[in-house]
Amino acid sequence: MLLQHQTWQEVEFYLTHSTGIIMPIGSTEQHGPNGLIGTDAICAETIAAAVGDVADAMVGPTIGVGMAVHHMGFTGTMTLRPSTLIAVMRDYVLSLARHGFRRFFFVNGHGGNIATIGAAFYEIYAEFEGAFGARQDQELVCRLANWWDGKALSDLSKEVFGDQDGSHATASEVAVTQYVLPKTIKQAQMDPPKAPSGRFHGPADYRRRFPDGRIGSNPSLATPEKGQRFFDASVAELAKTYKAFMEEKS
Amino acid sequence: MLLQHQTWQEVEFYLTHSTGIIMPIGSTEQHGPNGLIGTDAICAETIAAAVGDVADAMVGPTIGVGMAVHHMGFTGTMTLRPSTLIAVMRDYVLSLARHGFRRFFFVNGHGGNIATIGAAFYEIYAEFEGAFGARQDQELVCRLANWWDGKALSDLSKEVFGDQDGSHATASEVAVTQYVLPKTIKQAQMDPPKAPSGRFHGPADYRRRFPDGRIGSNPSLATPEKGQRFFDASVAELAKTYKAFMEEKS
Amino acid sequence: MLLQHQTWQEVEFYLTHSTGIIMPIGSTEQHGPNGLIGTDAICAETIAAAVGDVADAMVGPTIGVGMAVHHMGFTGTMTLRPSTLIAVMRDYVLSLARHGFRRFFFVNGHGGNIATIGAAFYEIYAEFEGAFGARQDQELVCRLANWWDGKALSDLSKEVFGDQDGSHATASEVAVTQYVLPKTIKQAQMDPPKAPSGRFHGPADYRRRFPDGRIGSNPSLATPEKGQRFFDASVAELAKTYKAFMEEKS
Amino acid sequence: MLLQHQTWQEVEFYLTHSTGIIMPIGSTEQHGPNGLIGTDAICAETIAAAVGDVADAMVGPTIGVGMAVHHMGFTGTMTLRPSTLIAVMRDYVLSLARHGFRRFFFVNGHGGNIATIGAAFYEIYAEFEGAFGARQDQELVCRLANWWDGKALSDLSKEVFGDQDGSHATASEVAVTQYVLPKTIKQAQMDPPKAPSGRFHGPADYRRRFPDGRIGSNPSLATPEKGQRFFDASVAELAKTYKAFMEEKS
Amino acid sequence: MLLQHQTWQEVEFYLTHSTGIIMPIGSTEQHGPNGLIGTDAICAETIAAAVGDVADAMVGPTIGVGMAVHHMGFTGTMTLRPSTLIAVMRDYVLSLARHGFRRFFFVNGHGGNIATIGAAFYEIYAEFEGAFGARQDQELVCRLANWWDGKALSDLSKEVFGDQDGSHATASEVAVTQYVLPKTIKQAQMDPPKAPSGRFHGPADYRRRFPDGRIGSNPSLATPEKGQRFFDASVAELAKTYKAFMEEKS
Amino acid sequence: MLLQHQTWQEVEFYLTHSTGIIMPIGSTEQHGPNGLIGTDAICAETIAAAVGDVADAMVGPTIGVGMAVHHMGFTGTMTLRPSTLIAVMRDYVLSLARHGFRRFFFVNGHGGNIATIGAAFYEIYAEFEGAFGARQDQELVCRLANWWDGKALSDLSKEVFGDQDGSHATASEVAVTQYVLPKTIKQAQMDPPKAPSGRFHGPADYRRRFPDGRIGSNPSLATPEKGQRFFDASVAELAKTYKAFMEEKS
């Protein structure tokens, strides 16, 4: 149930039985030689939509450009400054809160977003409550869930890719995009097959250490079939988490 | 050619022969009893993608939530503050400018965005140049085009809908979404068939004057077939405008 | 009736019978070889004051520096960033709203301000209403009117200057300043007499294409007598528009 | 020599022999029963213009609305937030700095502006230099001068008004506006003739303690003739200060 | 070696052999019945100072008020908005970067700061590099370390407090403040001895669930002697981490 | 009574009999050859704490980094932009106002902070009251006191240091830090013994004119014993001022 595919009267009706909404958030940044620049946005958007179907929940519009300052050394990467992303999330959530939404479940596709999302939640709480706590009898709650969270997903990663899933331009996220957008599958040589791992210092250092953009991954192992397994596992996991979130008492 | 469906190496290659990019921008707001909340985002995104195909141009990620303060009286509407939208557009454009993009062609789906887009362009120019004009030997140019711009489109509106196209939740925009997303077609009674017209003062006054959200339109006349005619006409018109824009000398 | 020429008790009395106020907004930017840098501020300020007299309306202080990023290639031009201008307009309007003013009629002297003024209006509405619509039972309305708006003015332009009025450093605006400030009349050679027309890309491109700053105009045709005709026509037109604005129901 | 009354070529010529400019800044706020709401802006603007004539200096556009939060309990008062005023001053000064102006002499008409002006100067210096001091070989200098500064003015105050000049809605500032705008002279009873003095806490407390807005003053003693003496003395004093400022070496 | 206890010439000398600096960051918020409001600031400041001694590193001034929106239901708690904290960290780091510091090691005392610190790092990187990557040949690196990080500390927690250390107003942090500030030791009844655990939604819900402010902890077990063990273990651990950080190549 | 050394229940109790709080604010900037970079923060913090003891008042956390843009030419200096310092002070004061604090007595250690502190007070008042004066029945008052204010202190300066106290890196402030932190006493040659005096233009000009950072001072005359005299005099003076402030009626 995508918010953008409803009429306003349908949203009004939805609010009579739920105040929860799923908010996909991704990134638009390099994902190595065969990964799409939109990988994180695509994963978050498609998985969130499926979670909405399973959990009978409204799904808001995707935040497609996230916090990707560290990838700016690679062509095509886009980024919001953390302060801009905080402002965007604040406007999204407070717009919906005006209509009565109260529980916001962010389905995230990008590790680099996590810190800023956490900061944004508290900027939102501060503004929702007001400086003097006038609205403190009402609770607005935001929750973050990454699509790869949970033991089921990490087990699947080990089973399917062993030690080759990696931490950026992962085999699993490339596989998910191959599953949901089969026409975009790219062929590319990976040299070395498994990219190096490690820390980095800023965009220039990132590019020096990881010249094709991958970290620790071998995404040439990705296939649409494997992607479907990750997709389904993630949807099942997140639907459970969403339901638990909605059942929490305040 | 969607930026999000490319690898970073493909974007690097694209920049060897063009510095232009198409940027869709819409809104997430009420569109009357049978119009989707995402109408403006959907029109901008799908038309921009088709223009990219025709004009062989890169298409950036859609800005899906725009400036819709005046629709906030209707459930489900989302809005960015004008100042937030300016920050978002600045980050989008300057991210891409770092990689070498220089001409930004915004395909807009929402009249209410126009003023803020215009303001954002000059915020961007000011920041790109720097306070002391250090980068003034390079030109970064933004251009705005609404999908309904041009005589071909206004003629079509008169031919297909006479005086019933209206100015919000228009028959033509509803028809475009029916064409591109046939599964989302809604049935709804319109009473009166053609909505009243006129000005309004703020969200509350808007809702008082236009209780179901439409202004001057009769979107029950919309059909997917009519939508296709608007879609095709808009794509043809915008592809021409984009090419002319890219051929302008600076 | 200038706000700055009243005592606070006089403003208090005014508010017992009207909540309307006229707000002049101009720019401080090059206006070609014989146009004053303050042309837009001077036109807006003097015409607004006369409208106030005719319409028996309060007139606020002039915003004398507007959005002129594109003129920054010419010495003496000043500009606010769009985001600063939005903050200024917000503070002006909300200050006056605290005392009970509710209808704000901006008399504008500069085409380059229009987009940012439109964006500012919605920033103001959002802040006036508050994030949760607490003040939505009250309507605060802003309206924009350019001094050259309306058929009477465009007819006069054609009659007096034919095709030589132009679009920047126009013959008519130079004439208005000659009428209201006869001591500032400048002599300057225009070469060519009628400046070239066309679009431009940013400050540097503007200066390359239009080396003396004019666009499409021949302001050597300006005289104080012609200026008076434009001044009078504009005041009559705007007084009518203001009255109609005040009579609109909300 | 008002910047707004010059052509851009005249400003270009001026910069060949001086990089100094006088910047008037006032306020739009209550000034008691016979003082104009624009008193501070009018004093700053007219005195600055005369200083410009005496010192052969360029005079920029007036900042007419200042920092008057503490007067907001009185109808008609307008204020910028301190943070907005800082942004405005930054944009004014950096616009002019781009063209080559380097010494900014602010002629101030309102005590309540002083702190924020001081803060703005350092915001400007920080931005002019850049975070890494790249422009540190160039010096941009801002200086503040109140029109009532100096021994000559305080002696005149004692001579003309004894202990009745006061600290807000002063007899001397009302007199200056009567001199420069004789048509705006107001008649009003003052009860008591000399207003009470003292500190205050916020807008509401201000109004409780000083119900007609004056602090310590008896502006019924103001006359245009007395105003002329203050005007002339201030112009002479400030012209000297400006020249000394321009002669300082850096 | 505290920056605040050096002369500027001593800092100049330090920079000839190291570009690293330790930055303590804490919080000022409720810590239950016997915990100090300044617990997190005190732990971060004192541990950071000792790490500086061990590692022969400069230690900057403490950020004493952090992000504590969720504790605002308890008297005495102070918070910066996330956006303010980001601005503060940006100014701190870029001030020091101007003098040549390049590696910033934040010693953190408050879990609630972690997300915002992460967001701030990328805001800093974006500003240091500039929108167009002009400074991308230089690397400025920020690193976060919590004083309780590492296996040594978690083992010690289990050994000393078993399952009673908790997650807010922990026995170990209270013990550390008792060790470094023995005069501030408080006596208080804990009821129940071990506070309840779990999640919370916003300030009001926090207070409802955890009425005395503690989460999962029994800080009546704290003693100065135990505090010393945690203090020493943390200093040893962080000194190692700092040295490794300084040895990383970029 | 330091806020950071209290439990939240102790603060709650304090508020039953006082709504006043002392807020130390300093700076982290060069103080010449034998002055500590933290001089202003150390003076403000230690004197404020002692005032709190004498006046039985709560003392908040120190703002240790202030507005020191003009000292940025000297290594080790840190600065907040004025706009950042305003945001910090706003968050500090409004956090405490939520709990019931209403009178804020800032003890300042740095002349360069004064303007920005004044600006911040009005930003705070504006936000506390709200745009529409909703909270205008309550008074929140901020007051600034420099530790060197008052005749007692200036007399002591003349008695102890004659004309050698100076205006930056003063003998008296260096002496105060020697008294409170005797282990940090530095030996340094002063050449000339008394530094030159005068104005300056920006950071680079400051360093040119005052190459070792001092202005008009001879801090080699500082001793801990002299420091104690200034410390005690300041505490006595400020305690009186604080009590008078708390006794003011609103």
Task: Draw up the topology in text.
Six copies of one chain form a homohexamer.
Chain A lengths: L7 H7 L5 E6 L13 H17 L2 E2 L22 H18 L3 E6 L5 H16 L11 E6 L4 H11 L9 H10 L21 H8 L14 H24 L3
Parallel strand pairs in A: 1-2, 1-3, 3-4
Helix pairs in contact in A: 2-6, 2-8, 3-4, 5-8, 6-8
Verbal overview:
Six copies of one chain form a homohexamer. Chain A has one domain: 3-Layer(aba) Sandwich (Rossmann fold), CATH 3.40.50.10310. Chain A contains eight helices and four strands, in the order H-E-H-E-H-E-H-E-H-H-H-H. Chain A has a four-stranded parallel beta sheet, with helices on both faces. In chain A, helix 4 links the parallel strand 3 and strand 4. In chain A, helix 2 crosses helix 6 and helix 6 crosses helix 8. The mean pLDDT of chain A is 96. At the A-F interface, loops of A face helix 3 of F.
Keywords, please?
homohexamer, 250 residues, alpha/beta, Rossmann fold, 4-stranded parallel sheet
- Secondary structure category of chain A: alpha/beta
By CATH, the topology of chain A is Rossmann fold
Topology of chain A as a string of helices (H) and strands (E): HEHEHEHEHHHH
Oligomeric state:
homohexamer
